[in-house]
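Before relying on records like the one below, remember that each one covers exactly one chain. Contacts with other chains, cofactors or solvent are not represented anywhere in the record.
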Amino acid sequence: MDDFFNLAFGIGEQTLTWWQMSIRAVVVFIAALMIMRIGSKRIFGKHTAFDIVLGIMYGSILSRAITGNSPFWPTLCAALVLVLLHRFLAFLAYSTSGPFGNLIKGRPVMLVKKGKLVEEELKKNSLTENDLEEAMRIGGVTSVEEIESACLERSGDITIIKKKQP
């Protein structure tokens, strides 16, 4: 049975055949889905730097398992460890919300307060007034004076809260 798996996955061989890489791709795909189920739904849904880094590393590690650049089973284990680490750090960031949570997930930044631009924050975050105007158009706002607050979220989105109309 071991000989069958070694032949099918190309374990111990210098080069892989097209069908060995295909078998690896199917197994990696199924394993990746199962590993992602162990993680949380937000891993690829919230696009914070924390999540994007995991996505890049996860894809890179799993591709090595398919192409045979790294040992097959240890590479799948490394992918699992990454997802578990992400889940653990997300749990810590949630339960300790404060400096650690801000370090891991980032923090929102106020760009407009009570109808006034906070130009230092725009500059510090490399945002132009055109970037803010785009978010204003999406939010149905025509001028900064109509905004109670505008915030650069951890995901990079700009959210706008309009002033209450009398």
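The chain has seven helices and four strands.
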